[in-house]
Amino acid sequence: MKFFSLFFTVFSFFVIIHCQSTSSVSTQSNGESVQELPPGKDLLPPPGGEGEIILNEKGEEVQNHTGEIPFFQKKSDLPTELFRVYIASDSYMVRQIRHTDKIQRKPDPGGDELAKEEMKKFDLLSFVDDGMITIGLNSITGKLESIAFDRRVPRINDVAKIIQNDASRFNYEHFSKDGAPIVTKFLISYQIRLYPGKTRDEIKQMLQKKK
Q1: In sequence order, which residues have a C-beta less than 8 Å from that of residue 141 and are 6 or more positions away?
Q2: Tens digit of each residue's pLDDT (9 = 90 or more) over 101-126
Q3: Which helix (H) or strand (E) holds 9?
Q4: Residue 34 in 3-state DSSP?
Q5: What kind and span of H or E run contains 94?
Q6: What predicted TM-score, i.e. pTM, was given to this entire model?
Q7: Residue 146's CB: how many other CB atoms inside 10 A?
Q8: Which helix (H) or strand (E) holds 72?
Q9: Strands 91-96, 81-88: pairing kind
């Protein structure tokens, strides 16, 4: 009896630990899994409008809440804005905020990692910037046909090139009966974050060497 009592105690302990470690997802009575909000965070309206589904860089459905970075939280006033991308040397995140029933970005974890690596060389001072790109897709193949900055260009030219290259690598899945694209022109908004990695004197020396 002592053995079974000990076994039951140990088993119960592991069940409790497992339940605590998987608290980020709950299951409704109909069997569907639902994302739970982080503790102390409140739900916000979808930035793309009521009823719009939000997808992340992995193609997973997520919710807008007060724990998201402000760039993702804010309401979109541009009807053609479909994607928001945040890049830093330690983070690459995407939010598709509109038309997930018509078009979706295909996950590309390898490309996401390369974008993060590209940002490391610019970690000099604490700096936040943004840019916006217009994408045009071929109306038959759905492949990239045109790409250009729209409204806002990052102040660092080399960072602007990284953003443009990043947007050009995206591949999309189109949801129509014949597979032809329904959405062929849209905006991708970018926010980049640099971290302080060098002193101002070191940066001055680098600039002097370039001259």
Answers
A1: none
A2: 999 999 999 999 999 999 998 998 89
A3: helix 2-21
A4: strand
A5: strand 91-96
A6: 0.79
A7: 11
A8: helix 70-73
A9: antiparallel
Which pair of structure tokens corresponds to residue 165?
A: 């290259």
Give the amino acid at 77.
D
Amino acid, res. 65? H
- Pair 151, 132: CB distance under 8 Å: yes
**Residue in the structure block whose two tokens are 């807008």:** 64
- Which residue type is seen at 171? N
193 within 8 A of 87, measured Cβ to Cβ? yes
Asked if pLDDT for residue 209 goes beyond 80, the answer is no
Task: Convert 10-36 to b/e letters by CB count within 10 Å (16 or more is b).
Answer: eeeeeeeeeeeeeeeeeeeeeeeeeee
Report which residue type is found at 208: Q
pLDDT digits (tens, 9 = 90+) for 64-94: 999 999 999 999 999 999 999 999 999 999 9
Contact between residue 23 and residue 38 where contact means Cβ atoms under 8 Å apart:
no
